[in-house]
Amino acid sequence: MRVPHTMSRMGDVLAGFHAAWEFESDSVLIRYERGMRTPKLLAALGERRIPLTALAGVTLTPGRRGTVVLHAEPRPGADPLMEAAAGQLKDGCDPYRLVLPAEREVLAEYYADELRSRLTADAGPADRFLVPAPDVPLSFKAYDAKASFDGRAVRFRWFWTGASSAKWKAGDQSFAVSELSGVEWRSPEVFEGHLRLVRGETAPVPADQDPATVVFGLGYGSVHESLPFAAAVLAAVRTRGPAAAVAATGPRRDPADIAERIRHLGELHRAGLVTDEEFSVKKAELLSEL
Question: Domain containing 282: what range?
Answer without folding.
Answer: 251-290
